[in-house]
Design goal:
Order of helices and strands: HHHHHHEEEH
Low-confidence stretches: 1-6, 118-146
Radius of gyration: 20 Å
Mean pLDDT: 76
Shape: globular
Length: 228
């Protein structure tokens, strides 16, 4: 699992343990999000068991991540280290680094998903996007982030995404969760945050309506929704 004592590892045991917990939590969330109708009091324990029983291809995951240009101290195995162990170290190292959190989101977006049995899956898997696993307002738009900084407050098409998002909610028998915050009274500035299908997006604007449109657009873009 770890490099031999003769080898000096540039990763720490903390990197490994944090990465292992992140991996398990991420996949449990994938499973729970895939079948919201079947959630019960013991859903988490059942999801834990399912993750443990899956034959996840750690070697393929590590190979795929090697080509993403991640800022990692090493990507090759050392000593008797396993692919499972080094994947956990990738995740822990990038999540804990103060300068690599953007790359952690890139890793999560490129990480191969667990294969959820068809009988368990009735919605799209939970995307790995900005705001996920404790990261906020860091991911570049190129990796499907829900950061809204690139969305113009004056874009005349913003309202279409709010309408589209609520239509999607009706299709899935759910309603996007919307919260409002007053950032400033002078000049007036509001923030609206919308949560839908495991994705959270925020929008800042001079009034609540515009902020809501920006947040809705961020969520739609992360989920791949486009107005016709």
């Amino acid at each position: 699992m770890y490099p031999t004592l003769a080898d000096v590892d540039c990763y720490t045991h903390t990197d490994y343990e944090v990465g292992k917990r992140l991996f398990n939590m991420y996949n449990v969330l994938q499973i729970l999000a895939s079948s919201p109708k079947d959630r019960t009091d013991d859903s988490i324990s059942k999801a834990d068991e399912l993750v443990r029983s899956m034959n996840y291809d750690f070697a393929a995951a590590v190979t795929a991540l090697k080509d993403q240009g991640l800022d990692l101290p090493r990507t090759d195995l050392v000593g008797d280290e396993t692919y499972e162990a080094i994947l956990y170290k990738f995740m822990g190292y990038l999540r804990l680094s103060e300068t690599s959190k953007d790359q952690f989101i890139l890793l999560m977006n490129r990480l191969p998903r667990v294969q959820i049995p068809d009988s368990k899956q009735d919605t799209q898997p939970l995307p790995a996007v900005d705001g996920y696993l404790g990261i906020q307002d860091k991911a570049p738009a190129a990796v499907g982030s829900v950061a809204s900084g690139s969305i113009s407050e004056t874009d005349p098409d913003n309202w279409k995404y709010t309408s589209l998002l609520w239509e999607k909610g009706q299709m899935h028998n759910t309603t996007p969760v919307c919260t409002e915050t007053c950032l400033s009274n002078f000049p007036t500035r509001f923030r609206v945050t919308i949560q839908f299908k495991g994705v959270q997006g925020s929008g800042d604007a001079r009034n609540k309506r515009l902020a809501k449109h920006i947040a809705a657009r961020a969520v739609c873009q992360a989920l791949g929704f486009r107005p016709s």
